[in-house]
Structure formats: structure tokens, C-alpha cells
Amino acid sequence: MVAPVKKNDRKTVYIEDLTHDGNGVAKIDGYPLFIQGALPEETVEVHVLKTLKNYGFAKIVDILKESPDRVKAPCIYFGKCGGCQLQHLSYEGQLKWKENMVRNVMKRIGKIDAPVLPVKGMQDPWNYRNKSQIPFSMTETGPIAGFYKSKTHEIVDMERCLIQVSEADAMMANLKKELMEIGVQAYNEQSHQGMLRHVVVRKGRATGEVMVVLVTNKHKFPQKEAAIELIRKLVPNVTSIVQNINIEKTNVILGNETVTLWGKNFIEDTIGGVRFEISARSFYQVNPVQTEVLYKQALDYAQLTGDEIVIDAYCGIGTISLFLAQKAKMVMGVEIVEQAIEDAKRNAELNGFTNTYFEAGPAEEVIPRWYSEDKEADVLVVDPPRKGCDEALLTTIIEQKPKRVVYVSCNPATLARDLKILEDDGYKTMEIQPVDMFPQTTHVEAVALLELKFVDKQ
Ligand code: SAH
């Protein structure tokens, strides 16, 4: 394709959509131009920055017709920090865009015509993140801390973040200033020198308990007493201070070794009446308010009467499993990370569940084996990572025919692909309910209900 525009051209364009990065998309004779900060239904005058074979980039010179959903982004770091993409779109506008996006992806990729319901959003779509992983870095002008610019490892030095909890703000804003005084150096990625790499803050929303994890580039931590005192001063409700050691030259945040410096080695939280212990390294959903909405939806779609055997595939620390176990005869959870399965077992015990069974391993291998041992399920719940379900698991579903499948997905594209595979072999998608787990960003979570429509007679 020959680009119909070239660098430094000025054009007036109509914005049709948003990309996953939150950029506006305009098309000139079918050639897409990506424009930072532009919103759907806007007419904007742009200056072309760069053209490639199949697409180009432009920047806004003037907004000629503004979207009725345009708002002033409340965060001063918006556009620099890579965390949020949609703060310039009203929350209602965000929910509307997410609903349309899910509907379009379902049609385009899956040819799915099931109803896509309006997105379940938050009443207060701010300060929802219960976990922040804050990179620290030593620069020529002193230590900085914040979040990365989009697609880079460059830290935007920040004092606060409007989607995280205030305890994480306290760490971000003050720790870097006061660290020097106690003699702790921030890490430098280039030289691999310095002590403090990341600070991870986690909060149990229901309990108010806070864990602060200091990720250090060394085992020895001579200033640890002073650091404990400083953190307790900055975050008075801290209940756990942990050192995690990561001496590798790597982008992976946490190392394998953790030492509790002060307080407990976990925090507790509850979701919908179920208690969870969360340690420094366990996976836990980052928006607890919406997690409850999501799990309730999954439970609702599972339509349990108390007699069902349920399989929860990709179960993590068993959060959905325990939610379902309140209404099922038996729940069997499978998850590839062994530590998560240990956590799931402990959480089941903590809550007094005796109708759960957890096993570590790949879902696509463990579930066929369960079926071969006559451990059959009436309802199957899946919550896979972004890449969707493994094909072997979909084949098992098609062969074993559980009467209902509840599919929890963080990626509408792979959801649509997998729904299509199941629809081609006996299932019908009844309904799709998107849930906004990540306000101000382009991420969307969705739950789909599938029912078995016919049984192959052979
Ligand atoms: N349902 C959980 C976790 C969902 S995240 C919750 O709501 O908290 C997806 C999970 O799938 C992760 O815990 C990941 O470790 C796990 N996973 C990835 N590939 C897997 C596989 N092949 N088999 C089983 N689990 C897998």
C-alpha cells in the first residue's frame, strides 16, 4: 500500500475508533493514521509525524469538532505515564467504548451474535488498584520513583497516582526523598548498582492491612531498622514489611527470596465473605471491588443449585473456586503455578471448605485425565490468561459436553476465537457481560455463558 500522506502533511480527519494504546484512529483512503489524544467522533486537524507502509502517526494541531465525552484528564502525568490511556474520556464514554469494542470483536472475530450487555462499571472509578509496583531509580539529580512511560523503561518521576491507594502514594512521594537520609541508594538499571529496585505496596481493601515489599539488589540490608521505622512513619497502617531479593539483571520485578523484616508475612482480604491470605508473591486481582462483581457474575451464570460438580480451570489461588464452592456440591480447581495451588488449599482450609479439590498442572492435561477417571463436571469455569484457552482444553470440553461453560476472559479477541470454536461444536453463547476491572485504561474483562445445545449421537 502506498501511503496517501507523507511526513509534515496537514490533514483534517475524522476519528473512527481507539487503539489498545488509547490512540485515535483515522483512515485516509483506508490507510490508518494513529493520533495520540484524539477521541472517536472527533474531527481534528493533524500534522503527520511519520508514515510506514501500512500505517502512520500524526499529532493533533487543532480539534475542530470535540467529542461530547471529552473531559480534562485529572492526572498531571496523563499522556506521559503509560499506566492510563483513557482519562481524557468521561467514565460513561469509557464504558460505552468498551461495550462497543467487545460487541465488534465478537462479531468480527467470532461471528457471535449473543447479546453483549452494558459494561458493569464502578461507582467511583479511582483509587481502585490494591497493588502498585513502583520502580525506583538513581539519576544524576537524585532518586526518582513513579511508573514507566508507555512501552519504555523510562520512569516518570511522580508524587501520586489517581488509580492507586493512598498508601502507595505515600511511598511514591516520600520514600525517595527520605531514603538518602538513611543511606539507601536507589538502583540504577544501566550500572546495576544501588540497593532499592522496586517498592511493591499491597492493600487488603476489606481489612485495611498493608504490605510493603522492598525489592533489593543485595542480600545485606544494613539500614533495615531505619527503613522499617521510615515506612511505619509514612504508612501508619502497614502490617507487613518484606524484603525481596533480586540480584539479577532482569526486567522481572520480584526475585525468588523473601524475608519478612517486620510484622506478618502476608495480608488478609475478603471478597464476598470469603477470606484470603495474600503473600508477597501470590497473584491476586488488583481491583477488589470489581472482582466481586466479576465473580458474582460467574456464579450467577453457573446457576448452581448445590448438586453440581464444577471445574475451575486456571484457578490461581482459588478465588473463583471458593466463591463457587459456597453454592456447589464440589469444586475442582486446576492451575499451573504450584505455589498458587498451595495458597488455594490454605485459603479453602481457612474458610472451612471441605468440598474443594485443587491440583497443580496444565489445565489441558489435568482436566482430560480427570474425565478419564470419571471425575465429570456439570459446569466448567475457565479464566485463562490473555492468550485464551489451550486448544486441547477446548477439545476436551467439546468431547465431554459439560452442560454449561462460564468463560471469564481478560482479552475479548481470544474470547471471541474460543467461543467460535465451542459454537461450531454444540455450544451456544447465551450472553456476554463485560465488567470494568481497570477504569481509565483500555483493558476490558468479560464473562460469557455458554450452554450445550445438542448432543452428538455417535
Ligand atoms: N482465576 C484466577 C486467576 C486467573 S489468571 C483469579 O481470578 O484470580 C490466569 C491463571 O492461569 C494464572 O494464575 C496462570 O498461572 C494460570 N495458567 C496459565 N496457563 C495455564 C495452564 N496451561 N493451565 C493451568 N493454569 C494456567
What is the end-to-end distance? 50 Å
CATH level 1 class label of the largest domain: Alpha Beta
Helix count, DSSP H or I runs of 4 or more residues: 9
Give me the oligomer status: single chain
How is this structure best described in words?
The protein has three domains: 10-65, Beta Barrel (OB fold (Dihydrolipoamide Acetyltransferase, E2P)), CATH 2.40.50.140; 96-123 and 287-452, 3-Layer(aba) Sandwich (Rossmann fold); 131-271, OB fold (Dihydrolipoamide Acetyltransferase, E2P). Helix content is 24%, strand content 31%. It is built from nine helices and 21 strands. The chain has helices at residues 91-110, 166-179, 224-234, 288-302, 319-325, 338-350, 363-372, 391-400, 412-423, and strands spanning 10-18, 24-28, 31-35, 43-51, 56-65, 131-139, 142-148, 155-157, 196-203, 210-216, 238-245, 257-263, 266-271, 274-279, 309-313, 330-335, 356-360, 379-382, 404-409, 427-435, 445-452. A hairpin with a 6-residue loop joins strand 7 and strand 8. The relative contact order is 0.10. The model has no long low-confidence stretch (mean pLDDT 95). The structure holds S-adenosyl-L-homocysteine.
Brief rundown of the structure:
Its EC number is 2.1.1.190. The longest helix has 20 residues, at about 90-110.
Annotation keywords:
3 domains, OB fold (Dihydrolipoamide Acetyltransferase, E2P), 9 helices, binds S-adenosyl-L-homocysteine, metal-binding, 458 residues, globular, Rossmann fold, seven-stranded mixed beta sheet, alpha/beta
